[in-house]
Amino acid sequence: MRPKTFEAHCLRLPAATKVVQWEGTSVFKVGGKMFALAGGFVASSGGFMFKTSNMAYELLIEQELARPAPYLARAKWVQLIGNDALSDAELKAYLDQAHALIAAKLTRKSRKALGLD
After folding, report:
1. Is it the case that residue 11 has pLDDT exceeding 90?
2. What is the pLDDT of residues 60-74, one digit of tens each?
3. Band (47; pLDDT cuts 50, 70, 90)
4. Measured between alpha carbons, how far is residue 32 from residues 1, 50, 59 in Å?
5. DSSP state string for 63-117
6. What three-state secondary structure class fits 27?
7. What single DSSP character describes residue 25?
């Protein structure tokens, strides 16, 4: 997936925002909490990074499509081996899941304010 497509998909998700931090890295957030990273230091060290479920984390690493994300592995984040490690459809599904996982951890009040409930 091209970085522009990645960004466009992330920003289409409900209440998603983008900020640029850490050496020009695009940080995609919902309710102020990160769910995906692209560009900047991420691009120089491999592919896109995103939050995963426990099962997806194990699966992606076992299939050598991703590795534990630097600094975020304990929270079950992965970094793709390359931006083309997954098909566009598969990556979009993982991004949807990453967004949903983070949104689910927000307070009920926050989710309601963001229009997620």
Report:
1. yes
2. 999 999 999 988 999
3. confident
4. 25, 15, 28
5. TTSEEEPTTTGGGTEEEESSTTSS-HHHHHHHHHHHHHHHHHHS-HHHHHHTT--
6. strand
7. E
Q: Is 68 exposed, middle or buried (0-12, 13-18, 19+ CB in 10 A)?
A: middle
Residues 49 and 72: beta-carbon distance below 8 Å? yes
d(CA 110, CA 7): 23
Amino acid at position 84, single letter: D
CA distance 100 to 6: 16
The span from the CA of 79 to the CA of 83, in Å, is 9
- What is the C-alpha separation between 27 and 50, in angstroms, rounded? 10
Neighbours of 75 (CB within 10 A): 11
Position 42 confidence tier, pLDDT thresholds 50, 70, 90: low
Tell me if 36 sits within 8 A of 93, measured CB to CB. Answer: no
